[in-house]
Structures are given as C-alpha cells and as structure tokens.
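Sequence in, structure out.
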Amino acid sequence: MASTSKPGIATANSGGSLTETGIEIRTSDGTADGLLYQPEGNSTWPGVFFFTDISGIRASQRAMAARICSEGYAVLMPNLYYRTGKPPLFEPGLKFGDEQFMKRMAELLSPLTSEAVERDAGNYIDFLAQQNAVKKPRFGAIGLCVSGATVLRMAAARPDQIAAAASLHGGRLYSDAPTSPHLLLPRIKARLYFGHAVNDKSMPQAAIGNFNRALEEWGGKYESEVYDAAHGWTVTDSPAYNPPQAERGFKALKELFVETLLGTN
C-alpha cells in the first residue's frame, strides 16, 4: 500500500534519537507523501497523527512532530495538500494576507471537501495501523490552524480508532454551514482538547462560545481553553509564536495522550 524511503536519524529536543522516514500512502485520489517518526529501539509505540497548518510540512512542523515522537509515540505527518503539490507549498517570501498567498491558500484548500478529508483519514489510519512498531487499535491526532477541523473529521470517520484529538488555534470549527465541524460531534467517541487563541479571526470569541455550547450538548469528555495569544502561537516560524503559551499547549497534549493512549486513566 505504501513505499518508504531510507530513514534518516533525527535528534529530538529531549536528546533521544528517532527515525524520520519519508512515506507514500495510496489514496482513492492519488498518493499522499509525508513523514513517519518513530523512537529508536525495538518496541511498539502508540500512534499519533500530526496535521500541519496551511503552510504544510517544513522545518517548524518537523520539529513539532519530532518532539511529540520523543515522548514515546510513533507520529505520522501526512501532506494534507498532496492533491495540489508537495512541500514547499508556497514560494519563498510570501506572507499571509498577500494576494499570492491567499490565492495559493485557496488552491490548497479547495480539493479538501469534508468527504475527501474523511476518505483520507481512513487511508492514513489504515497505513499507520499496518506499521509493525505501532500499537493498535487506538490512536491520537493533532491539528493546527486549518487542520483543527481535520482531527474532528478523522475522529468522526473512525470513532472506534481515534481515542484522542486535539486542535490548537483551529479555525472555523463552528459556523452556519451544513459542513461545519461541530455537527460531527454526535459521531465522535474520542476525548477532545481545544486550545483557542484569544485573537483569531478564523475562530472569534462568539464562535468559541457557540462551539463550547455544542460541546456541552454533545456530552463527551473534552477540554476547551482560550490562550492569551494570537492565531499561530504554537508555530516557531509564525509571527504570532508565543513560547510560554506554546509550552502550555505542549503540556496539554502530553497530558491528553498519556491519559488516553498510555492507559494511565
């Protein structure tokens, strides 16, 4: 189903070694490229999906995926935008809000219908479940920015396999559209975590309030917090990067996955 390149060795911030392997995943719409991270050693690890922001796979996102891996997880980071292109997805020097940036952003997002995202989610889960070093059958998922909605669609598509899903500064999680992510909640069994930005045009305070009410009505286990930071606060190459708040978010992810994937709860 998938081909892998020769793995390279990366060193996580904690000092532990891990492997970073280029992978390809066949989907109904083509072939998704991506990276698979695994801790060094002959063991099995809980699996986590890491979905990037709109700018795709690059150094900052690779570092985040590697840091999660260093905590004892096998991390799959697929290129969500494989239908449109491979990294780098943007020309150097483009900034959010620039005409060319926004045009490219629309090109990347337009193929990602709710149906396409759910199909991809199944392919990604099947791929990770086939890896010998990955524990089955329950996985975690993280989404940043536009991919905050992706983790909800994944959790809805495979409710018995996604045990935990986290969105950090996720956008448009609640809207009046018939495809709004909040409408997926009745299908979801996972424990959910949401770290919102206090200043986020893609998820303003009114939308956060509506989303929180939807979560309460859902009745599942969740946590929803607002960080004193702007959209993009977890990403080191973002102008909004906020180290203290990013560390707070990483701590929340650690707790979520320990309690859901490592069986301590």
